[in-house]
Amino acid sequence: MSTFECTCERCHLKTLFFRHITKNEIRSICTQKVEHNYEKGDVILREGDPIKNFLYLKEGLVKLSRTTGDDKEQIISFAKPFDFVSLLSVFSSESYHYTVTAIEDSTTCELDLEQVKEIARENGVFTLDLMTRVSEATDRIILDNLEIKQKHLHGRVAYVLLFFANKVYERDDFELPISRKEIAEYIGMTTENVIRTLSEFKKDKIIRIFGKEIDIVDKERLESISLHG
Amino acid sequence: MSTFECTCERCHLKTLFFRHITKNEIRSICTQKVEHNYEKGDVILREGDPIKNFLYLKEGLVKLSRTTGDDKEQIISFAKPFDFVSLLSVFSSESYHYTVTAIEDSTTCELDLEQVKEIARENGVFTLDLMTRVSEATDRIILDNLEIKQKHLHGRVAYVLLFFANKVYERDDFELPISRKEIAEYIGMTTENVIRTLSEFKKDKIIRIFGKEIDIVDKERLESISLHG
DNA sequence: AATGTCGTGTGACAATTATCATCAGCTAAT
DNA sequence: ATTAGCTGATGATAATTGTCACACGACATT
User: Fold this and answer.
1) What is the CATH number of domain A151-228?
2) Which helix (H) or strand (E) holds B37?
3) How many Å from the CA of A2 to C1' of D5?
4) pLDDT tens, position by position, A156-215
5) What is the fold, at CATH topology level, of the domain defined by A7-136?
6) What is the nearest CA distance from B42 to chain A, expressed in angstroms?
7) What are the chain A neighbours of B25 within 8 Å (beta carbons)?
């Protein structure tokens, strides 16, 4: 699972976000960082687990979810490479408020949280960078949830399809990494209605469906539905 | 509007959150901080405004809202004293993504953002404290929205009433600081249905209503509705 | 005093969404 | 090979929520 050679110098995390970290700090983190591989479906973190590590996604795709009071799953958000997976509560809680599950084969990079905090305490510029990143990510989650909230069923389903097409795969045909049930858990509707809506989109020749394969045929139409439908 | 005497030493902001700030840093912030008073209904910050200051609420109650694509208002959250009002995007965007409006007479304390950032860069412990606070606040917003999302109309209205009773006023009779329309904008339902639901609660002797005065009579029942209704 | 606007309140009806039942296909387990 | 369980799919029906219409009072403006 863990790598033996140190590749932090080439790590995107460093070059993309943490421009203001010293060589020593990088080395200190590097010598104890651990990479983990997960297969699609594997649970990476479980709700209630103590927060010991600072995780980011190096490769793959994950979902953040939680269990509601009446034992239903609710998907909070999806995270892509270089998103911080342990971001929602990492600096404000002792334990995770949500579960992280791989929805594609994924690789995480785990750093010891105390060590990251130690660097943060010593290096304010690093911490400010980090805060900017965390802030962007939580902003995104809040805005996405507000967007979804104001839409009806059809608009919500269209929004999810466009999310995967535009933000995740950057192409109009892709394999849906989640089930209809999971779409429902994300947009707050029932599985049956998600399935029905996809069928209608197909009947109206807006998309083509082959199992989990989605092909967006009439993107303008789908965008219009996402906005006004 | 602005105060002439420096009272930062007694400021809750310092004692509560910024335990790790030096006397010099406090003084430096203090000499240029500005307090503003707002009356109920006043707009404190407007969506799209450039972010120049770091604001926190010293007294009162505010709502955070945004305008959706089809020009409807959507309330994101409410903020209480010592919440950071300019928190959602202050470190991740050039301009506000939302409007802040006083829903009770309020006082803000404004610090120059660049100066706060300067301190943050110099003082990692301070920044880590700050990040913890920002993180807690955004976590709260996300969790509240998820809670509301899984409930039906009745549960949502009950949830809002309990929010004001428990979290804001800490008593079971209070004057609702917002209109029925604003409740609707927060929970994502129509004004008519909010009014109807309040009427039903009244008919069922769960609450008493005198205009904006709310008196929760049967709190257990209301809590049960919030959870399962 | 007349007018307009806004918040509140209620009813009738339409639209949206959930629930329940059923079925087919696939896969894992025995 | 058979069963059990899960996802996907569709229809009928019920529940929930939205829309439209109207009414009333408070309040500000003219």
Assistant:
1) 1.10.10.10
2) strand B34-38
3) 35
4) 999 999 999 999 999 999 999 999 999 999 999 999 999 999 999 999 999 999 999 999
5) Jelly Rolls (2.60.120)
6) 24
7) none
